[in-house]
Write a structure and sequence with these properties.
643 residues, alpha/beta, 30 helices
């Protein structure tokens, strides 16, 4: 390199350094400087801090309120502080925040899920400081408590868990239930769709294993929700140990009253794969009745699944941070979930005598096959997947309770002309519409909706008639009254002030429309002698006329149309009527023609289907290329090639 090149290189490097230094100097000069080191309200923390006043007073005077505040008693809090206090001590030029305050701030955040500014106003601590306190304290709780209350069991402990499952739930050789829970988080930056859930929200997965007494035995946190539960288990540490046989699982053991050696196993729902040490219930095939032995097996297995469901439900109900979207980065969310899991086991172990954390009524109870929901189901959000019970069993029998099947059998036995119309949804709509005609208060509607198994909002949106239809019915009835000369009573009233009961009383008081006593008695006799069909049952306009009056006045078009509307059975569309079905001969012809496509799993193109149609036009009835393409695709997709 000559001297000129060296000079140019040195000069260019010096120019770059000078430019960078000048930009840094300008940034330091123009950036906003802090107006104060700490706000005055935080300097006066000591005399008015929440922990020094309210918390200590609750711990000394009221155990129940202290538990409601921190999800543990005062003695348990002091014991936890003695374990973690030395790790929470901080040193600063100013007065440092005490370890007890740091621990209580973290507990209050986990219990309520309040935002950092809200906790800052409560404890008089800056939100940025609270953010650091929560992250550090959650990590310390995991480091201190996990070796004590959440360590992986050894062989002897696995045997003890299996014995408890057999004694409490009649499920021998069971080592625990396994399930996953979604922890909703705010979308992390620069992660794309890694944490995206199929319901268009972002979440991480908590994979948990529990024993027969609602204690967590292992957790795995941080998996992407884009993975299924089976995929999360396969990639987790627990799944690797389970697959490699290094989980310290005991050897084979005989079942009660049997001579066959059976391996120990965990139970999970249908999202998990079937393995040697992992059992899942039988899947119900479409339109096929499940055999009785499989029903009994699913019932027994569902007991273990219900244990892990209750364990995660207790965790969600006690720590309300799971009730909302956690606004934190994934690393902090992982620390929060681990801390709550450790606290669940720690508090349940310490409060085992008082049962204040998890009493008998707080979990699901089963007596003679009837399951009573636990109180934790009322404390979690309604849209939570854990909020409903899907396990029902008939006492003294070996069959599941199915509401749809019960209604279907009753509809057939009652002699209805169209039993397929008597469904649970139509029954709910019928009740909701009938109650809409009555003057009911909001609390009464709430009771009816709760009895029917849904909320008042669902009752109004999905089952009641829309308000415009209800108003149209009012207008129609008013016009009928005006035609009869009975509309003077509504003079000066708006539509919202008109009640259906008033219209019904006016119509019933009419001499022309009122049925005689003899007529009524004869109709009752007919009902007792012969069961009515669905036409006779539904051929009654509400609150206006009886069925006999309608039969005598069929010439009136308004009433006839009303009855026909009620009894109208929706016919299949013309498109469905004219749909051609594949026969075995044409299927075989298509599959032989596109045999190479089936072997290579390639969907035929439009011109290829048209060539097939042109070749066999005289021997086939289906010439639509889309249907031919769909048949070929479905054949190699579901592997049901008919030779």
């Amino acid at each position: 390199m000559d001297d000129n090149s060296k000079k140019i290189t040195v000069f260019g490097g010096a120019s770059v350094v000078a430019y960078v230094l000048s930009r840094k100097y300008r940034y330091n000069e123009t950036r906003n400087k802090r107006r104060m080191w700490v706000r005055d309200i935080y300097l006066k923390r000591k005399p008015h801090v929440l922990f020094d006043n309210l918390v200590k007073e609750l711990g000394l005077s009221n155990t129940e309120l202290f538990f409601n505040f921190s999800r543990m008693t005062a003695s348990t809090f002091e014991y936890l502080l003695s374990l973690c206090g030395s790790y929470l001590v901080k040193h600063s030029q100013r007065e440092a925040i005490a370890p007890a305050t740091r621990l209580m701030v973290t507990l209050r955040f986990l219990v309520t899920g309040d935002s950092y500014p809200s906790l800052g106003y409560t404890f008089k601590i800056a939100p940025s400081t609270i953010c650091k306190i929560i992250f550090e304290t959650c990590n310390i709780l995991w480091q201190v408590l996990s070796p004590r209350v959440l360590k992986l069991p050894i062989t002897q402990e696995w045997l003890s868990i299996a014995e408890d499952f057999n004694n409490l739930w009649h499920l021998p050789n069971c080592l625990g239930g396994i399930d996953g829970k979604n922890v909703h988080i705010k979308a992390p930056s620069h992660t794309g769709s890694q944490y995206l859930h199929y319901k268009n929200n972002f979440a991480i997965v908590l994979l948990a294993v529990c024993d027969s007494k609602y204690f967590l035995t292992h957790i795995n946190v941080g998996a992407y929700k884009s993975q299924c539960d089976g995929g999360v288990l396969k990639k987790s540490e627990f799944g690797q140990l389970l697959q490699n046989g290094t989980l310290n699982i005991p050897n084979l053991q005989k079942l009660p009253n049997a001579n066959d050696d059976v391996p120990f196993f965990f139970v999970g729902n249908e999202a998990f794969p079937l393995q040697v040490h992992l059992m899942r219930p039988y899947s119900k095939k479409r339109k096929l009745k499940m055999p009785e032995d499989q029903l009994v097996f699913n019932y027994r297995l569902s007991r273990g699944i219900r244990i892990i469901e209750n364990t995660l439900g207790i965790l969600t109900a006690r720590f309300r941070i799971y009730h909302r979207v956690i606004n934190a980065d994934p690393e902090t969310v992982d620390a929060i979930v681990k801390a709550t899991a450790c606290l669940h086991n720690f508090i349940k172990l310490q409060e085992s005598d008082t049962l204040i954390y998890c009493g008998h009524e707080f979990v699901d109870r089963e007596v003679d096959g009837i399951i009573t929901p636990g109180l934790w189901r009322k404390e979690i959000p309604r849209d939570c997947a854990l909020g409903t019970i899907n396990l029902r069993f008939v006492p003294g029998s070996k069959k599941w309770i199915s509401g749809a099947n019960v209604i279907r059998r009753l509809a057939i036995k009652c002699g209805a002309k169209h039993p397929q119309l008597l469904t649970s949804t139509r029954f709910r709509k019928h009740i909701a519409t009938t109650l809409q005609l009555m003057t009911m208060q909001l609390h009464q509607i709430e009771q009816v909706a709760t009895f029917m198994g849904h909320t008042r909002k669902t009752h109004a949106q999905f089952y009641r008639l829309p308000q415009d239809i209800f108003q149209t019915a009012k207008v129609a009835k008013v016009l009928l009254l005006l035609e009869k000369g009975k509309g003077k009573v509504f003079k000066g009233k708006c539509l919202s002030e008109i009640e259906i009961e008033e219209e019904a009383s006016i119509l019933e008081s009419s001499d022309d429309d009122a049925p005689t006593k003899k007529h009524t008695e004869s109709s009752i006799t007919q009902i007792n002698q012969k069961p009515q069909s669905s036409e006779q049952i539904y051929n009654v306009p509400t609150f206006i006329m009886s069925s006999e009056d309608i039969q005598q006045s069929n010439h009136e078009t308004e009433k006839t149309n009303c009855a026909e509307d009620v009894l109208h059975v929706p016919e299949k569309s013309s498109q469905n009527k004219g749909r051609a079905k594949w026969n075995s001969k044409e299927k075989k012809l298509v599959l032989n023609y596109f045999k190479s496509h089936l072997e290579e799993k390639i969907t035929p193109k439009k011109h290829e289907c048209e060539e097939y149609v042109a070749k066999y036009r005289n021997n086939i009835t289906i010439t639509d290329w889309v249907k031919i393409k769909t048949l070929v695709y479905n054949t190699f997709r579901y592997k049901v090639i008919n030779n």
